[in-house]
């Protein structure tokens, strides 16, 4: 067996299963889950109909490169969404079978696992807390993860200025997540300027995970993207790729449809890797994805539902927890320290007493630089309907107040 597999940690939801294994929640309360970030809004009819209309495509092998029509639809969407003058569908866009697959495979493509002259492995720099795929991708590429802790003073954006120069010198790949999972933090133009300057100096690739980019709260202020930031700063896309997905934007996680866009030289090698990897997106879902990327009405309706939930739930929880509206995405990142419970004990007792699931923040982070930045936090995924989210928040408020009685 590949010995690098031994370096992988249990996934957060396996840790959650073990945390709850001896707990029996009250049978009289229906389970409410804020645990998994799986969209629960209805899949738009236009996408379901496009799947039905394209079922004839099951008779053909899909192209890893994707159909020209899909690449053109994605390039058009990227250009319009991020105010870019031109995105070449032939060289700067590659459809993928979900951003998760692509985030993992990208590290296998760009990392040179040979150790440097001092015998040190390459570094993949990740936010902390983080989406666990980043760490696994780094380890299985033969690299060493290095974690940049989030800073509560910066609305939980990472403080990249605290990273030593010798770490940047060994960095080959930087994962950023904006809007962030679990914190919802969005990188500013100044953040991007700093990262581009570091990439220019040290030559590392930036992979910008933007799968939450279409969940935000002000229609006039969509989150800044990596390619957009590069254009605003007068740059090209050298050493930069962004990854996105239809899962959250269009409520189709089961389609596993996304894309990578940016540096044409990286995408050329990434296509070569994925041709052998065999992860081509189904022809049926390629066709349905064209319909999804070509329509914004359902995306605005989707955002409106999240706005309603966040505007209802956030002030309810703010009465008992330290929580505020995130920059974007569909998570609330709540500090539970004032309850007197640790994040994992809070999650366990809330489930035991009120049959509500939240994810302990420490499960989503690593201890780095003498601290676990997820400690004392829980993540709530507001993915269910308004009524269910409101009822879940009401139970959390009741639970927190019961701790003081």
Describe the structure.
The protein is α/β, with parallel strands linked by helices and 405 residues long. Helices cover 40% and strands 15% of the residues. Strands 2-9-8-7-6-3-4-5 form an eight-stranded mixed β-sheet, with helices on both faces. Helix 7 links the parallel strand 6 and strand 7. It is globular and about 65 Å long. The protein starts with 11 loop residues before the first helix and ends with a helix. One of its GO terms (molecular function) is pyridoxal phosphate binding.
List the keywords.
405 residues, alpha/beta, Aspartate Aminotransferase, domain 1, Aspartate Aminotransferase, domain 2, 2 domains, 8-stranded mixed beta sheet, 3-stranded antiparallel beta sheet, 14 helices, 40% helix, globular
Q: Into which percent range does the helicity of residues fall?
A: 25-40%
> Helix count, per DSSP?
14
CATH second-level architecture of the largest domain: 3-Layer(aba) Sandwich
Low-confidence stretches: none
Could you tell me the mean pLDDT?
95
At the fold tier of CATH, the topology name of the largest domain is: Aspartate Aminotransferase, domain 2
Number of domains: 2
Major sheet strand order? 2-9-8-7-6-3-4-5
Largest sheet descriptor: 8 strands, mixed
CATH C-level category of the largest domain: Alpha Beta
Compute the gyration radius: what is it? 21 Å
**What pattern of helices and strands is seen along the backbone?**
HEHHEHEHEEHEHEHEHEHHHEHEEEH
Distance between the termini: 54 Å
> Could you say which overall geometry the principal axes of the C-alpha atoms support?
globular
């Amino acid at each position: 067996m590949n010995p690098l597999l031994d370096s992988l940690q249990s996934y957060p939801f396996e840790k959650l299963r073990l945390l709850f294994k001896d707990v029996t929640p009250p049978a009289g309360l229906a389970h409410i889950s804020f645990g998994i970030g799986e969209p629960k809004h209805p899949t738009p009819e236009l996408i379901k109909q496009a799947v039905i209309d394209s079922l004839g495509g099951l008779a053909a092998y899909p192209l890893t490169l994707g159909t020209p029509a899909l690449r053109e639809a994605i390039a058009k969407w990227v250009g319009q969404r991020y105010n870019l003058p031109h995105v070449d569908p032939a060289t700067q866009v590659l459809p993928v079978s979900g951003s998760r697959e692509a985030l993992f495979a990208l590290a296998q493509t760009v990392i040179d696992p040979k150790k440097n002259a001092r015998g040190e492995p390459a570094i993949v720099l990740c936010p902390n807390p983080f989406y666990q795929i980043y760490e696994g991708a780094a380890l299985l590429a033969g690299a060493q993860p290095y974690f940049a802790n989030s800073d509560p003073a910066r609305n939980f954006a990472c403080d990249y200025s605290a990273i030593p120069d010798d770490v940047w010198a060994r960095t080959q790949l930087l994962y950023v997540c904006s809007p962030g999972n679990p914190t919802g933090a969005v990188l500013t133009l100044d953040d991007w300027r700093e990262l581009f300057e570091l990439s220019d100096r040290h030559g590392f690739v930036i992979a910008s995970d933007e799968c939450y980019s279409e969940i935000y709260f002000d229609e006039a202020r969509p989150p800044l993207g990596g390619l957009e930031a590069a254009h605003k700063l007068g740059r090209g896309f050298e050493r930069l790729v962004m990854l996105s997905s239809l899962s959250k934007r269009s409520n189709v996680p089961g389609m596993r449809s996304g894309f990578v866009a940016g540096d044409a030289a990286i995408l050329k090698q990434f296509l070569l890797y994925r041709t052998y990897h065999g992860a081509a997106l189904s022809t049926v879902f390629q066709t349905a994805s064209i319909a999804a990327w070509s329509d914004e009405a359902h995306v605005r309706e989707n955002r409106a539902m999240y706005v309603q939930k966040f505007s209802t739930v956030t002030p309810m929880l703010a009465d008992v927890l330290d929580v505020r509206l995130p920059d974007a995405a569909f998570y609330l990142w709540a500090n539970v320290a004032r309850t007197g419970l640790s994040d994992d004990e809070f999650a366990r007792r809330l489930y035991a007493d009120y049959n509500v699931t939240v994810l302990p923040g420490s499960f989503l982070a690593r201890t780095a630089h003498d601290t676990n930045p997820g400690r004392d936090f829980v993540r709530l995924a507001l993915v269910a309907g308004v009524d269910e989210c409101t009822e879940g928040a009401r139970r959390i408020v009741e639970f927190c107040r019961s701790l003081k009685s």
